[in-house]
Amino acid sequence: MRLFLEFFIFELKFRFKTISTYVYFAIWFAFSFLCIASENFGPIAAGNGKVLLNGPYANIFNDVFSTFFGLIIIGAIFGTSILRDFQRDTTQILFTKPITKFGYLGGRWAGSLVTTAFAFSGLVFGELLGTLAPWADHTRIAPTHLLWYLQPFFSIVLVQIFFIGTIFFMVAALTRRIFIVYVQGAAFLILYLIGLGAFQATRATALFWPGVFDPVGVILNDSITRYWTVVEKNTLLYSWSLHAAGGVFFYNRALWIGVGFLCLGLLWKFFPMSLEALTARTSSKRARIALE
């Protein structure tokens, strides 16, 4: 536990000294602020003019949108945290000392999780302050209900950060190549957009299983809210109940949280805690270059 805390605290100190952490926070703060302060900005702007800009449906949709297009940010934080040691050759020092797998991997992963959560918390602060903008259309802004902001953040944003970030972290740790991490993020983004377009072209009405298996939330949101009235969109949040919308939200969250834990298990099993194994690829490459 001592080593875990050392790596965890080191990761937080490093991240909160880095300007990019605050840039990411500012991006999501500005996005959510403008989604409420300006009725012509954001994914809800072109929708029904009676839907509250700070209501449950709007906050949910904005959070789904941000975590999807924030894939690169999640990858940048989780991926580089574990690759930093290999890029800077500090593994030569670290792995000559008696460090544990839990301390090293756990501390780096937990520090990345907290940092990413901080960056995306800009969504909540932006939403709250957006309601105070004097130029905003206050006919579409309801009195502040903290649950409307916090429940989507914890049940959507944090869950997305957990399992997507863990996948990035696992791939980075096992391949030790930043190129693969970013290609993975770009491929995920492109494939999801293609799949989403194909799904919408079918005009399917059976949305339970597509909603359960949706890793981002666009189809999940449609499967839950497709038949909601304006009043329901302005008052209801996603429910974890198995009786609400057939339990699609519960099963979706359970599935992808499970994927996150599976990736942690695979990382634990296959990550080698020896300097020889970790540097074998680099050593082989150097040997080939020397022979040439």
Task: Note down, in words, how this protein is organized.
This protein is mainly α. It has one domain (2-291). It has helices at residues 2-15, 19-37, 56-69, 71-87, 91-94, 101-120, 122-130, 146-175, 178-202, 208-213, 218-225, 230-233, 248-270, 275-278, 280-291. α2 packs parallel to α7 and α6 packs across α8. The chain is globular, with a radius of gyration of 21 Å. It starts with a helix and ends with a helix.
Radius of gyration: 21 Å
Strand content: under 5%
Question: What is the count of distinct domains?
Answer: 1
Count of discrete alpha- or pi-helical segments spanning 4 or more residues: 15
SS elements, strand count: 0
C-alpha termini separation: 46 Å
Q: Main traits of this protein?
A:
mainly alpha, 72% helix, 292 residues
Question: What's the helix and strand layout?
Answer:
Layout lengths: L1 H14 L3 H19 L18 H14 L1 H17 L3 H4 L6 H20 L1 H9 L15 H30 L2 H25 L5 H6 L4 H8 L4 H4 L14 H23 L4 H4 L1 H12 L1
Helix pairs in contact: 1-6, 2-6, 2-7, 3-8, 4-6, 4-8, 4-9, 6-8, 8-9, 8-13
What does this entry show, briefly?
The protein is mainly α and 292 residues long.
